[in-house]
């Protein structure tokens, strides 16, 4: 039986204290993160983002410098030539690099977080030695090939196929992938394909080298933003993939793809945190220097509100990201399905709002292309589509819970017992939830009260929805979105409380408490 994650347990009235206390944050004792940031900043001086955008491509020399700086090997284990950063450290790195230029950073971040992640998690020793070593140096830049012209969010029904050859030595790969990040920079890619046409979702993950016969990478697609990154289609025509290049076992590909995307979502969450913090700083600097009506615009409440909201949202994003990462690192396949979805949804949608607000605070000058604010919006826009659209993530968490409940109900064949199961899950659960506190102030007490109330409501909505709509509940998207919003803010508040608990009572500042208070007020609007 697949274990439940933290939020899924909460949906059923169970607060897992051990998981709550697993919250942790990144450390950089050896200065690896600072080393990479320094190299990245120096590289941007030599290859300014505006120049790269006009070129529409990263020069070969720039890619080489990325490799020399070990950016392509940041998370690769040291035994394969990488720096061995864990996901916490990687997220801290992304927080710092994404605001400098997301388009350029995307090249090595996509390589690390989704391109080679399947090899890192599921590869054999031989696969890791061959491909991670080449990936760490930048000799082979990797891509993640899942999306197809006819299948995006519905990845279970991709049409690319992998058929075992008659001699049993190769898989014959046929199909087309599209919107593949790094396509024209890549030396290798993780490709997903159906292995049995009669079983949708019975997929395999394959390591494919771009130079192999039958692999054809198309021209880069013109895009709204992220113009320095490469995005293209890839065609596979009777590509002979050695059996040794299958990741894991036949049929495990779909779950692998889902797990890998958790890491991509956390990368987007970290980028969102970094850019939101940068938006707050940019707005503050502008508001202090710009005068209208005889005073600095920082003195106008509507401007203060924008800056304060950006700071509070950035704080919340950081707590959510590190809590979800704590869960993901401990159980990559099942530990943070709902939590990573919440991080991606909240981070990308709110950062898009903050990018808009930043341009607004800068007024007419923000609209001018010589300033970075319009480019920031163009580059960031696609993040609400990457790794699952906003709409998918607005209904996905309750669907995860409903899938579990459905399996539980299938195992109960006696109608009386089934009714008892449903009835028992409609009982109040708030008093059973105990959350260890590091503070007894009013804001924290209010946060705990919200969590108890929201968790009761989530459970009630799930089970009354099942009784009312039966299987059709999966189609009731407004109901699912309401549940998701409640779940998201519940997770957000619990993440902040977990951060407080991790820091200890003496280290909880008034500023942190104020941010929590702001989030609680925003959360009340979704009840």
Could you please say which CATH topology of the largest domain applies here?
A: Butyryl-CoA Dehydrogenase, subunit A, domain 3
Mean pLDDT level: 91
| Low-confidence blocks of residues | none
Overall number of strands? 10
Tell me the number of structural domains.
4
How far apart the termini lie comes to 33 Å
Oligomer type? single chain
Q: What does the radius of gyration come to?
A: 24 Å
Query: Considering DSSP H and I runs of 4 or more, what fraction of the residues is helical?
Result: 40-55%
The number of distinct helices, counting runs of at least 4 residues, comes to 19
Q: How does CATH name the architecture of the largest domain?
A: Up-down Bundle
Task: Give the topology, please.
Layout: H1 6-11, H2 17-20, H3 32-46, H4 49-55, H5 60-68, H6 87-97, H7 102-115, H8 117-122, H9 125-137, E1 142-145, E2 161-164, E3 170-181, E4 188-194, E5 203-209, E6 215-217, E7 231-242, E8 246-251, H10 253-289, E9 291-292, E10 295-296, H11 301-330, H12 337-366, H13 373-380, H14 390-393, H15 396-410, H16 415-424, H17 442-469, H18 477-503, H19 510-524
Parallel strand pairs: 1-4
Antiparallel strand pairs: 2-3, 3-7, 4-5, 5-8, 6-7, 9-10
Helix pairs in contact: 3-6, 6-10, 7-10, 10-11, 10-12, 11-12, 11-18, 11-19, 12-13, 12-15, 12-18, 15-18, 17-18, 17-19, 18-19
